[in-house]
Design a protein that fits this description.
This protein is mostly helical. Helices cover 67% and strands 0% of the residues.
């Protein structure tokens, strides 16, 4: 139960931290920038639902929400890296050589934000938050409502030889 509560607390902190980051970046200019806001709403619902009604169906629904957010986050990582890759030729360090760099180097620079304006780590944080919520449902499932189950005890009977 303590593990589950800790995972839920980390999930809530991650939701709040991600929301703060999105707000400071004014991340609402296009429909694509609204996707992480919707993902945060799904994650918040995933945290709240079991508190309202704890059942196997609710756990399954929370897992579905977490997987949906993971998919949105993966799209976000791809979108951020692609924008950085497209902006590579604008970077003053690589403007003259961007087209001649090996493709793997260009994608690496885009992934690590060596070029481009968008941080691929931001949607990665969203994926981490969804993963924490998913782990919280697994901790609940294995521990049950009354805490961790006691280990099975095997009794050996001694037989006269």
């Amino acid at each position: 139960m303590t593990l589950r509560r800790g995972l839920i607390a980390l999930t809530v902190l991650s939701i709040l931290g991600t929301a703060f980051e999105l707000a400071t970046e004014r991340h609402w200019q296009t429909w694509e920038q609204l996707l992480p806001w919707g993902a945060l709403v799904l994650l918040a619902a995933g945290v709240a639902l079991p508190a309202l009604h704890d059942s196997p169906r609710v756990v399954l629904a929370v897992r579905g929400l977490a997987v949906a957010v993971l998919l949105v986050a993966l799209f976000g990582v791809y979108a951020h890296v692609a924008v950085n890759h497209e902006a590579g030729f604008l970077d003053q360090r690589y403007a003259g050589t961007w087209g001649t760099l090996p493709a793997l180097s260009r994608w690496w620079y885009a992934l690590t934000k060596s070029v481009g304006p968008t941080p691929p780590l931001a949607p990665g944080m969203l994926a981490q938050t969804a993963f924490l919520l998913l782990l919280a449902t697994l901790a609940r499932r294995t521990s049950g409502r009354n805490g961790p189950s006691a280990p099975a005890v095997v009794h050996r009977q001694s037989h006269p030889s």
